[in-house]
Amino acid sequence: MTAVDVLYISYDGALDPLGRSQVIPYLEGLAATGHRFDLLTFEKPARWADPVVRAGTARRLSGSGIRWHPLRYHKRLSPVATTYDLARGYAKARQLARRRRFDLIHARSYPSALVAWRLSRATGTPFVFDMRGLYAAERVDGNLWRADGALYRGTTALETRFLRDAAAVVTLTRASLPTIQRMVAEAGGTAPVAVIPTCVDLDLFRPAPPTEPFVLGYAGSIGTWYLLDEMLRFGAAVLQHVDGRVCFLVNMAPDEVRAAAHAAGVPPGRVDVRSVPHDEVPSQLGIASATCAFIRATSAGVARAPTKLSESLALGIPAAVNRGIGDAADIVEREGVGVVVDPHDAASFPSAARRLVDVANDPSMRARCRSVASRIFDLEAGVRLYGELYETVAASHALPSRRP
Asked: Which residues, in sequence order, are bridge partners of residue 147?
């Protein structure tokens, strides 16, 4: 193994739930194998204001030998704020590159890729474009941008340059591989495309003994792409078959969830809505008998990989998912670890709910879910794949020709 010096850029903060679940664990694992990191992040002021979490994260990163360079994230007057953030990010990245010679730059998603791409062109250092999904298409699908708007057109133009000049591209799903490979070729790039799914720390997410009564769980965000009303109506259908409750662990708008649950016909005494710290998600979600994650299927959905599925399976919990979201439905059907539901066909909910209850009551199900998570979503496997990619890129240390 050849140790690699990496500048890792993430527009998600290290203090964000995604940073704590999908950035730091990977870097800790890679650092343990000898790779060296400077981590550049953009931190939300509200999370930065918590001195306990901030100091704990700093100690955690320092303990792994990871040099953390946090910048403030700005939201007001976006996209002006994003432009300002990325300008400061580039200035900081240039400063870091003058202090030490990086073997490669790892850009997590599109905003970070702009910083990495500019730095790569200025210094000749190869960069890895870790896409995390089809960003511009997702923004349009979520009705956040207009398909004929300047933001979409500008971002897709940059996307072409990122794919053309990247030394390697990472996508999260096998379902998206043909699409991403075609996009690289159309951009004039030659970068290999690696599939590395959103993995989970199996030591942190461990199965707990099953509980009574039945609990249908959900953990994560609501809004934009998440079909809250449909999930709650499905939850009401599940409760027609079992004596149990629906439990939503959300990081925002708990009153909105309660109101939606009432409208969906979930009895008030059978819905539990809570906000819990990220570190408590494994224990709080672990009491669930099954989980539910319905996400709006769009043209960009092929590249989405919900962490919810990997975490549920790691806990030994079967899941109800819908089609059109990366590899989720294929995994659930192929491995027999849940049910695939059409969230827009309410008439199918009673039979789908019954199937999910039957699956969850299968005595072998928890071991099966855990086995699938170990085979597909093990963090150690993800760390190994990133390590191999780093070594390949650093060894080649070559960028495509720098075109304007």
From this structure: none
Q: What is the identity of the amino acid at 178?
A: P
Q: What is the pLDDT of residues 134-154, one digit of tens each?
A: 999 998 988 889 999 999 999
pLDDT in tens, 380-398: 999 999 999 999 999 986 4
- Scored b (16 or more CB within 10 A) or e, 39-51 reads bbbbbeeebeeee
DSSP 8-state code for residue 270? G
The single-letter code of the amino acid at 159 is: E
Kindly tell me the sign of the dihedral angle through the C-alpha atoms of 12, 17, 22, 27. positive
Q: 215, 247 in Cβ contact below 8 A?
A: yes
Crossing angle of helices 379-396 and 24-32, in 10° steps, is: 70
What fold does the segment set 214-376 form as a domain? Rossmann fold (3.40.50)
Would the CATH topology of 5-199+378-396 be identical to that of 214-376? Answer: yes
Each domain of the chain, given as residue ranges in start order, spans: 5-199+378-396, 214-376
Measured CA to CA, the distance from residue 242 to residue 361 in angstroms comes to 11
Residues lower than pLDDT 50 in the chain: 398-404
The domain at 5-199+378-396 falls in which architecture? Answer: 3-Layer(aba) Sandwich (3.40)
**Helix (H/G/I), strand (E/B), else coil: 54:** helix
SS3 230: helix
Instruction: Provide the whole-model pTM.
Output: 0.91
